[in-house]
Amino acid sequence: MIELEGVPELIDPVMVAAFEGWNDAGDAASTAVGHLEREWKGEVFAALDAEDYYDFQVNRPTVWMDAGVRKITWPTTRLSVVRVGGDKPRDLVLVRGIEPSMRWRSFCNELLGFAHELGVELVVILGALLGDTPHTRPVPISGTTSDADLAQRMDLEETKYEGPTGIVGVLQEACTHAGVPAVSLWAAVPHYVSQPPNPKATLALLNRLEDLIDVRIPLGELPEDARAWQVGVDQLAAEDTEVAEYVQTLEEARDTAELPEASGEAIAREFERYLRRRDGGAPPDPGERTRPPKPQKPSEDTSEDASDDGESSEE
What we know:
By secondary structure, the chain is of the alpha/beta class. The chain is built from ten helices and ten strands. The strands form two sheets. The protein has an eight-stranded mixed β-sheet, with helices on both faces.
């Protein structure tokens, strides 16, 4: 049961969610939400009942000592709110948890009820998947939505994925059925170096999120961590001839496929990000935020519509 006591009235709230597990290659997505919590000092104010959604033989609780007293932390999904200051302040509702073991439709319905109570205007779900991408190139980030109008306004892809999905795909589809605008941002993680952490993928997700919701995200030590990670992988690849040759093959394929990306539009996006960070604000003449339509309150039968075969972006 979610408790909303003590939560102030929010300003232009956006929900940002990530879940450990199948949708979180290299822990890139969950680490991104954890970074937002740390940088903006978010405090957890609510959590879902772990017994409703988790198999504790799959995700075991942990025991720890607090001033000599043994305590247990249960695997669950927790929620916090952070306020982003500046000329246009807004609030982020951060959802960080583990992909549930059961009752996915009820899980999504509970989160959607929470989003409605807080007046959330947009849900952004972060994910990471394994792909044939070289670690030496920029991390590919795909933004997808099931809403054709939202795809056009926010320069996103309208998802066409068919196949097995995880909680990211199911939650996005539940949002669609409930009339809540939702976007999924996916980072592609090199499959040959999939072990966490992957700060380069986390950094790429945060940069794309920054562009999408028009906020400046403090990156802290992430850029340096990303550079150190790439140097470390470079060194490992150099020690294995087969790996080095394979990486070179991926580089050639990537460079050939993305040659059109060296366009004026791509350069302009990078220049705008540079201006934001140099000036500590938005680029010149940014215009108003693109607001999605106001979400509707989830209907009673939403849980029946959000089936486990919803769309995701594991393409």
